[in-house]
Amino acid sequence: MRRRLRPHILQIVGMFIPTGVLIFASLSVWNPDKPAVSLILVLVFCPVSEAPAVVKQIQSADAAGKAQKLGQVVAPLAGCGENVRSLAGPFGYATSVQGCAVIGYPGYQREYHWYKESDVSICTHGKGFNSSNAATWYNTGCQDGNWLVPWGNTLAYTQMQGLSLSGATGAAYVWRA
Q1: DSSP reduced 3-state for 65
Q2: Are 176 and 86 contacting, i.e. CB atoms less than 8 angstroms apart?
Q3: Are 148 and 114 contacting, i.e. CB atoms less than 8 angstroms apart?
Q4: Local confidence band at 104 (pLDDT 50, 70, 90 cut-offs)
């Protein structure tokens, strides 16, 4: 007989940022198959006016054993500092998977490091944010190296785009999330 795992809220914290509230809920889950406690972090971003309702939703889901399924922030496919293999598109910029979550501050610039893995030349863009905190693709060059892009006071995932210059085939490149 399998027992249902039930999370229990350890802490709920809200962080106010200019465009709303980021709510962090840490939950512990007992796993009888591995006799261990796992920690789950639920992240929810919402407008300030919706924060009390979101906290109630987390608490209600916790009571029903479903809190680990909440969260409006998409989980990254690569962790911070990991190398991400990506494909540069042959007929336009191809967007990579998401990298790691970065919390910036006023004036912060995010460094992107990339190198190509094929003989085909490519050009890249790194995701950054303009002075209005809108996502913008910044030129990160057509040669391997380190490139800085404006990030500012934003919480978001890193991401790159690549364009193959062959005109017929894609090209592989690696970037550090």
Answers
A1: coil
A2: no
A3: no
A4: confident
